[in-house]
Q: What sequence folds into this?
């Protein structure tokens, strides 16, 4: 019984981390789709990166994605 309890706690933490990462991924995808970029092809490139590199794509987008956006003040 103790073995099952130990696995359950780790599973819950992994499940919560997965849910949070999915929310982070969806946030990045929505941000890409709603943003205007200096180069029109960058939107497609970021969507492809987010879809095919799901593990590291959102992290790379947060670190590098803002440099190519067009800002209107």
A:
């Amino acid at each position: 019984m103790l073995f099952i309890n130990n696995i359950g706690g780790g599973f819950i933490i992994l499940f919560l981390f997965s849910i949070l990462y999915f929310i982070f991924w969806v946030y990045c995808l929505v941000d890409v789709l709603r943003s205007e970029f200096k180069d029109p092809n960058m939107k497609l490139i970021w969507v492809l990166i987010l879809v095919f590199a799901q593990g590291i794509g959102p992290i790379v987008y947060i670190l590098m994605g803002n440099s190519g956006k067009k800002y209107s003040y």
